[in-house]
# Entry
Amino acid sequence: MTMECTVSWTGGAGTRSGMGFVAETGSGHTLVMDGAPDSVNPKNGGQNLAPRPMETLLAGTGGCTAYDVVLILKRGRHDVRGCSVKISAERADVDPKVFTRINMHFTVSGKGIAPAAVERAIAMSHGKNWSASSMRGKTAEITTSFELTEV
# Structure
């Protein structure tokens, strides 16, 4: 089973500030995320009014890693103007239907950013100190790729 999710940084549209992200899930739902200090507990579902729990988990992983990539690039004083990550995941066929493979394809835009800086930021976002990817990496093989556009 394959799932997809695209997470985009909302601070890239001219403001280059803030840490908000919008996730678009494969089932057509949108989830808004932000780096606010308060965490929001998901409600019990069952009415198909929001993304499915595993899609939310996938979106959270993408949001967390995109957040890390943007933060790392900003801390490195790179002129990052956009960041999105398209995630494809496969799940086990039997319970527990954990993610077994996850691919994250990043699209980063900015001015004068070296590809090595993006590669480093992505690698750091998947290191042992970064929570969401580390958790997913316990059950899933995680692969990454990226493209960089000059704006």
Q: What stands out?
A: The helical segments are 53-75, 115-125, 131-136. The mean pLDDT is 80.
